[in-house]
Amino acid sequence: MAEVKNSGWASLAHIAVDDIVLSIDGQPVPDTATAGAILKADAERKSRHIVLHLRRGVHTLFAEMEPVWDAPSK
Questions:
Q1: pTM, 2 dp
Q2: Residue 67: exposure state from Cβ atoms within 10 A (0-12, 13-18, ≥19)
Q3: Could you give all domains of the chain from N- to C-terminal order, each with its CATH number?
Q4: Residue 69's CB: how many other CB atoms inside 10 A?
Q5: How far is residue 67 CA from its own chain's centroid?
Q6: Residue range 11-49, pLDDT digits in tens
Q7: 35 vs 49: CA distance, rounded Å
Q8: Residue 30: which residues within 8 A CB-CB, separation 6 or more?
């Protein structure tokens, strides 16, 4: 992650700057374009949970986010 805002969703999920995203919802993330495509699909489905597999230094961990999607505009 390049930036984590205080009190933002990533911060609440305990995601830190310099974490490396290995997968999102079990799908490998080799680059930022793939991450964007997976997250865009999650947004279109309005997924209730998004699970990130992260590498932090020599450790790996999972972080689960429960996004609140915006209501469709009228």
A1: 0.77
A2: middle
A3: 9-65 (2.30.42.10)
A4: 12
A5: 10
A6: 777 788 888 999 999 999 999 899 999 999 999 999 999
A7: 15
A8: none
